[in-house]
Design brief:
Layout lengths: L3 E4 L8 E2 L7 E4 L6 E3 L4 E5 L2 E4 L4 E6 L2 H7 L1 E3 L4 E3 L8 E6 L5 E3 L4 E9 L28
Antiparallel strand pairs: 1-6, 2-3, 3-12, 4-11, 5-10, 7-9, 7-12, 8-10
Length: about 140
Amino acid sequence: MKIKVKKLNDRAVLPVYGSQYAAGADLYACTCEELTIAPHATVMVPTGIALELPVGYAGFVYARSGLASKRNLAPANKVGVIDCDYRGEVMVALHNHGETAQTVAAGERVAQLVIAPYITAAFEEAEELSSTVRGEGGFGSTGTK
């Protein structure tokens, strides 16, 4: 699948897969200088790119495992969603979950982009729903003790 990417800035880097079978392509900070993210703060990190995703697909922005586990930096909204009709700049709301300030270098990999199909449902009001063994069991109701 080919995805059109528009560079909005000369410093922008197109998304890059880290290995042959990687599901996520790295997104890069497109800044002139370092960004410092204070503890428990969120900074909008520009990527300098816009995407044209095919109808029926969305871009999902996930944390990079190393950045999250080693430096406590991950998207504030947990998973960002880029709709196929969005043509603006891809931004990463990077949150510092740690107790010390973290610095993001210009050009650093800050998140990963996974492109996946989605289904648009037709929601229909119903008086009753079919019964199941689980029923109305909520959080933790299917696990063992």
